[in-house]
Amino acid sequence: MRIAIVSEHYYxxxxxxxxxxxxxxxxxxxxxxxxxxxxxxxxxxxxxxDPAPPREELFEIVRVGQAYPFYVNGSEARLAVGPxxxxxxxxxxxxxxxxxxxxxxxxxxxxPIIAVMRSKAPVTVGTIHSVVxxxxxxxxxFHRPLQVVFGRLDARIAVSQAVVESIQPSFxxxxxxxxPNGVDTSFFSPEASPLPRLQDGMRNVLFVGRFDPRNxxxxxxxxxxxxxxxxxxxxxxxxxxxxxxxxYQRLVPAGLRGQVLFEGRVDQLRPRYLAxxxxxxxxxxLASFGMVLLxxxxxxxxxxASRNSGFERLLESGRQGLLIDPPDDEPAFATxxxxxxxxxxxxxxxxxxxxxxxxxxxxxxxxxxxxxxLYERLLPAMPGRARAAQAATGWSAQAFSSPxxxxxxxxxxxxxxxxxxxxxxxxxxxxxxxxADSRSPSTTAPTPASRRRSAGC
Length: 457
Prior knowledge:
It is built from 15 helices and 15 strands. By secondary structure, it is of the alpha/beta class. The chain folds into 2 domains: about 1-180 and about 365-450, CATH 3.40.50.2000; about 195-360, Rossmann fold (3-Layer(aba) Sandwich), CATH 3.40.50.2000. The strands form 2 sheets. Strands 1, 2, 3, 4, 5, 6, 7, 8 and 15 form a 9-stranded mixed sheet that branches. A 6-stranded parallel sheet has the order 11-10-9-12-13-14, sandwiched between helices.
């Protein structure tokens, strides 16, 4: 199959969606599929503190538009923009003639929505990665256009049941299928070598995450202060960065600053940090799944985490780790950390259980088995498939075809004259794949559904 993966999140930006897009593309390419990952350039590429060789990329990468950072739903996100963005995406779709277009975070404006509305593939699916809080105002405000976008998807995938439960009440007529995140179990492995400078007799508590308020670093620092009152052989190692770094550094008591290590943004050394850790801790307030937990479990590290809707579906408290409720109960976090540091056998048992769970459920080959089955199930079903949601609302692909036409979102129609034609300006980055124009024609014939997807400016 020819498969396009569209994601606003990709390296050098770190995060759960980035890891998912890379892992999905890599495993699909290993199975012989022709994979193209479409993603924007970053206005401010984040730097990591660990020098590392380039990743092996077995798939084609096409960069379109430019991504700017902003905050939404308590977390850092990316918004891809550009006057030629819609035209560039449409040109890639036309040239590649994909069998499947897979869009990550399909309600993200602008790039993901444009990709959904411009897709000409027989199958277009989207994976939703976010849990939204009750009464989330942005979701209410954009409910009508999102109903159209979701209605054009042949399948709506959620990374966890927590995502379904937070999204489905707003879209009661649509179904969602759960296919979880995956993890590279050979990369995040108990066999990784620890970092020598962290093997000095001190016990290591590890925190991994962007410095977003909802990730709970403030509570982590306070819980660590309480833990130090119980034992003095422990330090806190923090992987991550963000605009709030200075704020969090000032929260560390003067007497503990030598035992709280702000290591910065770390990429390919994460397995070695996990191998150096006795326990991973994350007092996160809101999570759809828990990639940080999954990576720690894959590395055989026990976890102390907050009990939220995403984490409690990933691990069982008392088996692969301990879950604390509420996420700001700092004394409870300190007590749980002290328990696992004091009982080495219990910690080792929980780490082994986490590794076993990951190998049997979340390894990328297992996740891609389910994804391939979904693609293959949808492909023969496409001819004659109706786009009921679009017909019911009168919305069209024109409303999402360019940044200038987003003003049409709150209107019932978008005239063709309000969406001027644009030329393609996509930038390709080589990855060892043959140029797309030299590939053989797609074996999947266009269908009425795919022809309808090509409508618009």
